[in-house]
Amino acid sequence: MAASPVEYTIGGVKVHFPCKAYPSQLAMMNSIMRGLNYGQHCLLESPTGSGKSLALLCSALGWQQAQHAKQKEGGGHVGDKGQSEKNLGDCKKSESPTRCYCVCHSNADRAAVQPAGLDKETGQPLHTASEHVPSPGESQAKKPSLASRLSEKVQTSLDSDCEKDEDFRSDRKRLRTAGFKSQKRQRTQQGVIFIDDEPELEKETSDPQSWRTASSNQAAGLSSSCSASEPCSNCPCASAKDKLKDKDKDGRKKIPKIFFGTRTHKQITQIAHELKRTVYSGVHMTILSSRDHTCVNADVAPHFNRNERCKDLLEAKDGRSCRYYHGVQRMREQHTLQWVHGLREAWDIEDLVTLGKRLRACSYYAARELMQGASIIFCPYNYLLDPMIRESMEIDLAGQILVLDEAHNIEDCARESASYTLELATLQSSRDELDGMVNSNIRRSKHEPLRDFCYVLINWIQESQELLSERGFESASKVWSGKNTLSIFHSLGITADTFSNMKQNLASVLEKEERVGVVNGKEDMVLVPTIGSSTATVLKNLFMVLDYLYRDNCRFAEDYRVALQRSYTWTNQVPPDVPDARGFLVRPRARHRQSIRVKREVLTLSFWCLNPAVAFSDLSATVHSIVLTSGTLSPMASFSSELGVKFTIQLEANHVINKSQVWVGTVGAGPQGQKLCATFQHTETYTFQDEVGALLLHVCQVVSKGVLCFLPSYK
């Protein structure tokens, strides 16, 4: 490839490429431009080694820069502004809202008793087009971001930062409303080549009906359990109002961010290296990764349970806090990162970790903080597909560009992200913690339904053991279809309506708030206890699966299988101290105290998602564009069908090399004439090994630019 940079104009957008592009790269960039210009999804296949990553980066970042330039010139965003104004104009024409015939609004009796101008679902007055609709900029002021939360938390300690050790600083908690998480989600020159182209305190005025009572009032049958529990967004005026959410505080169209997903963290390193070669290397960026790769706290990083240890430090349960977390403000802004700390070009995870250690700041939360001002965000693509990871990382993909590179195994990742497996012992532990909250009268009305849900699930698992069939040595299982599981859950009192109530209860019990209490005889603000992170994770994952099962009138029920499995595992157990003849407990020395192997029964409940389209159903209708690339995607039609996404733009690019450059054959003998017979008895001989070594040496001397050699085994 030529070393001199070239500027291409593709689809009316200037793209700066670091070298002369291959035909396959030009074809890819042309397809990507069409997809981004028209908000369509792209499925692109290009052989390995043909420069896909470079084409993805340059075309996507070039398009993004062009949108920024248009916005500065007052041109707005391609094709969206006029349509939004047209939709709003349609809303202005009629005083009463247009009749909506979607499933959730089709109750004619309720519609008849509502006066004109009122919402048919809530009975509340509708906002007319002339009324003030708060812009996202205004709403952002009311939604504390991670930056504002960090700033507020450490503001009082900044002045004394050099004088006091922050290891033992207690963490003051603030009230976080139930909807906090969900609110967040909401030039022609020479050389240019043209290509065609919540309230303050929780007030309980009355005890809500338990989910058991609610279920008994419903009509029997599966249909009631699958009824839509939430209104849909298909109303004619809803789309126009949603358009307003995509604008910034100045009323301008928001420019989509680029979420660039790869299969592994190692591939992110390679992508960052490619980005450094381009003129876009100074773009505002961040890399999202796990604590395994970014934690710099010596009290947390060496341990296997880093997530739990980190959360315990942040909650200051033992009076200690994480001093690195308090230092995030030193590296949380893009401008500071580039012009104060020297990361002016594309950087990697190791660069951020090194900087975090030097500044004594948490690189894990700094990377999340940098996401707010970043134009491109790199991460493994399970961060984008898994709804639980998206929630914990506060990733909002609505209106954004989603690029998935090396996506040939994206189907497995999508199925896994919509599945969940838990052990009975884990569920029992969660039940016990919820039971403790109820017995301590802590948000009793909210914790009690969640505890009862765990009780019902545990009882069903234990009763179903007699249905297990032997499948192998010390293993047995029973598998139900999704529809059968919903029928069973309905008989247990778990329906779409009761599930909706439980989701609200879970959001309430996860709130963090302070109430007035008495500490050492003095009134002080006391943090209301909340359930632990492990119990919260269990409930969130269970609710994630149930949400898919009940969604859209149980549309995905047949895409699930629910399995109960019994197996056995061997664990080490230290024997108890044994009394001697005089009745004294005798404890052997540690080196003489040997553990014994104990066989333990394990019951596991699994929700298996069989259809990758379930996970993609969250994305395809909300993102601006999905660009999915790999070297092996064919057959394209079946791949697109399995994901349940309409890829309007598809490409199968040719390889960059000619057929004359390829030779496929077998080599039967080495340079010394020895026969190369790689059977077990021959591979152990020095004669064979020397001959293979001589052959590899000869190939490496003849073939320039490197050799890739595959062996049948590591040995």
Features:
29 helices; single chain; alpha/beta; 5-stranded antiparallel beta sheet; 715 residues
Give a summary of the structure in a few sentences.
With 715 residues, this protein is of the alpha/beta class. Residues 69-96, 118-216 are annotated as: Disordered.
Question: Layout of SSEs?
Answer:
Layout: E1 6-10, E2 13-17, H1 23-38, E3 42-45, H2 52-72, H3 81-93, H4 108-113, H5 136-142, H6 146-154, H7 180-185, E4 193-195, H8 211-216, H9 222-225, H10 238-245, E5 258-262, H11 265-276, E6 285-287, H12 291-294, H13 306-315, H14 323-326, H15 334-339, H16 349-359, H17 363-370, E7 376-380, H18 382-385, H19 387-392, E8 401-404, H20 410-417, E9 420-423, H21 424-439, H22 444-463, E10 469-472, E11 475-481, H23 482-491, H24 496-509, E12 514-519, E13 522-527, H25 533-554, E14 560-573, E15 578-579, E16 585-586, E17 596-609, H26 613-616, E18 625-630, H27 636-643, E19 649-652, H28 680-683, H29 686-702
Parallel strand pairs: 1-4, 3-18, 3-19, 5-7, 5-8, 6-7, 8-18
Antiparallel strand pairs: 1-2, 9-17, 10-11, 11-14, 12-13, 14-17, 15-16
Q: Could you describe the 3D structure shown?
A:
With 715 residues, the chain is α/β, with parallel strands linked by helices. Helix content is 40%, strand content 14%. The protein contains 29 helices and 19 strands. The strands form 5 sheets. A 7-stranded parallel β-sheet has the order 6-7-5-8-18-3-19. It has a 5-stranded antiparallel β-sheet with strand order 9-17-14-11-10. The longest helix is centred in the C-terminal third of the chain and has 22 residues, at 533-554. The relative contact order is 0.13. Residues 78-98, 100-104, 106-143, 154-224, 227-231 and 236-241 have low confidence and may be disordered. Residues 207-216 have a biased composition (Polar residues).
